[in-house]
Amino acid sequence: MKNIKLFSFVFVFFLAFSCEKKIEIDKKTVFRYNETKNINSLDPIFAKDLSNIKVINQLFNGLVDMNSKLEVIPSIAKSWNISSDGKVYTFILRNDVFFHPHPDLNERNVKAKDFEYSFKRLINPNNASPGKWVFDKVDNFKAINDTVFKITLNQPFNPFLGILTMKYCSVVPKEVVESKSTEFRSSPIGTGPFKFKRWEENIKLVLRKNDKYFEKDQKGVKLPYLEAVSITFFPEKQSEFLQLIKDEIDMISGIDNSFKDEILEISGEVKNKYKESIKMLKGPFLNTEYLAFFMNSIKKEVQSPLIRKAINIGFDKNKMIKFLRNGIGKPANGGIIPIGLKGYKLNENNLYNPEKAKEYIDEYKKITNEIPSLKLTTSPEYVVFCEFIQKELEKIGLNISIEVIPGSSLRDAKANGKLDFFRASWVADYPSAENYLSLFYSKNLSPNGPNYTHFKDNFFDSTYNEIISEKIEKNNILKYQILDSIVNSRYVTVPLFYDEVVRFISKNITGMELNAINTLDLKRVEKK
What we know:
The protein is α+β, with helices and mostly antiparallel strands. Strand 8 and strand 9 form a beta hairpin.
């Protein structure tokens, strides 16, 4: 803890690669946060985990970006057009975006050929990028000249612009990536509002302001406002909370069991003793937590719509959120599509109704002459939720046993159809309801796709294909709701809750906006 305090008072950085002169930076211009999950790479083609994405978002830009309303907005591409058949995307690039300083670049601006190189690198199988899939529907891409870049899809796919906002699609300079003098994962060069300065792995990461960043605020003032970003890597959430209340860091993300009861009332409000120093930001997060049935199971209880319906309405989701999450999250009273996405719709048939649930169980008993029982498989961090559900369902006559296995084992078992009934979640890869509906498209059957339930329906499939072929996604909201209702009416899943982005920040922090994909954007953040 001593080292944290010293670092909080004085921040020392090198001015440039070849300069040994040191300067002291005012603490009030440095944004500090801790990352408990650590970071394994600063290379955008490996931007899979949120901890990596948070930092990479400060260092890199792509063709397009996403605002707080989940709208695709210009970034390095100042404009674009889409062909009438929905296959060809033509981007017009700005000519005033420069890579961060590096001896091999000579203050070079970004050109269309840089995106051609960056995308080829992303899909190169030798690089083994987890983001290679984002170009699955791309036929080809090429630089037409310095400022025109064209992407051609092999079929229309209207969420494609949203996919391009992912950090996998960031632009990188070939000269630096292929330089033998540095390793790009730990010495990245991008175009973002902050530039890389120093990384002591597992200890501290420092970013400095990019004085040549191309974006400005509404008053014409150059962004970013902060001089630096400092990230530490203490693994304990409890320590992170203590750092915040001692003003040693400026933000913590998420709510952990180790401190949720200390900082929050059951109602979800910050406790009075912290209101003077801490404020909470909260908004929709595109993450649906749910239970799922393997529809090809031979187990009678899984095949019975009566049992699946009873589970859906047999426990109180409001009570679960209130007491197990201190009011963080929204009860999943719709379908798989979460609050915050176009396509979400309340499903009244999924509302808590223990009397009706018991009727379904009793009807099942009459038909089978058996007491229904199921094994629910989960990972350790969700045991408390499963135990709550278990006790509630016992009251209506359904016996649930709980199997707890490591998260990696759970992922493997559900992908290979080894579980009848299991806990799952889906965090959107990109902000489109299509991403959630793809979980039930028959061509996405696991283990090769995300359809872990092995749900199949011909009308669902044909309508899903219609949706992704439309040129404009906003025309599909009603179809999204129809598809979600098909899955709901078959009770393929048991939606539990829609998560929320939660950040606790110091009272002197202004300008921080939340978005439903939980990206950290520090361009407009200030410390007063």
